[in-house]
Amino acid sequence: YCSLVVNFMHLYVEIHNFIIMPNHIHILFEINKINKEVKRKSISSLIGAYKTLVSKEIHLLGNIDFSWQRSFHDHIVRSQISYENIYNYITNNPENWEKDKFYKNN
Q1: pLDDT at residue 57 above 80?
Q2: Helices (H) and strands (E) in the chain — how many of each?
Q3: Phi, psi angles (nearest 5°) of residue 48
């Protein structure tokens, strides 16, 4: 689904980091305000479009029971320290998967 993450965003969104986990996804992105000719969508619209696109692809692959949680959690990055913490959290998330409360040892 990596290409889906990159391709779903519009011209004004730059993805800095992402990770796809078994039960969730993290995306660190920036909305580029330079190109004023492109009508920008809200974060809710972007996430909704992403969920729709990915759901269709997953269903086409045969996982018809797949569904997303109803909403999403967002966080506005306001400092370089916050950016670095979030970037590192995303990068290191797979190492912490076994500690996740939803992890199931199959």
Answers
A1: yes
A2: 3, 2
A3: -60, -45
Beta-ladder partners of 30: 14
> For 14-40, what is each residue's pLDDT tens digit?
889 998 887 788 899 888 766 666 677
CA atoms of 82 and 85, how far apart (whole Å): 5
Residues 6+ apart with CB under 8 A from 23: 100, 102
Task: Give me the phi and psi of 30, to 5 degrees please.
Answer: -125, 135
pTM of the model: 0.74
User: Distance between CA 22 and CA 24 in Å, rounded?
Assistant: 6
Comparing C-alpha atoms, which of 73, 74, 55 is closest to residue 65? 55
